Amino acid sequence: MKPEFQRALIPSDEVLQLIGALNAMKDELLNAAQQWELLDENGHVPDTPSYTALLQHATDAQDLSRDVLRLTADFARSPHHTTRAGSTVLKHLGTAATMSSHAAPNFTESAECALALPRSADPTDRHYLANRMVIDHASARAFLRRTSESLPDAAKELDDHLGFQRSLATLTRQQGPPAPPPPRPGGRHR
What we know:
Elements lengths: L2 H5 L4 H24 L15 H27 L6 H33 L6 H53 L15
Helix pairs in contact: 2-3, 2-5, 3-4, 4-5
């Protein structure tokens, strides 16, 4: 295989490891987005939303974002980000990093509203705070979902890259080394 083709390929074991990490991270983000609910089973804002629980959502979202950012930074430092497949993977990881970094501040804003809600005596203020809390919490969960959608796009690009490697390996095996030239008939002539 030509050296320029070899440089354009990401080693299969690294690709498989990265796909596994992306899938695990996607599942974590999706679970968080689905489980961290604010509204009760009837779709109503609880009378006394838990500041502590909402702040924990922010803390956990910050941890998830850190993991996405670390994975993105590690890939960006690798020599593979300069390949065709690698640059596309990095684009998806960059989107995931950006989306994930917006979740924690929105959860924190939601927690701040929950903290202010019991202190507000004015019904209009309470209504405003409750609505803002719901919107911030829903926005944070949406950022987690969008992050979880960018990671499979990166994994698909890596999977396509593996398919390309397999096809290339099959082609090079079929072609094999060139056959030696046939011996000249009649031996040596002077």
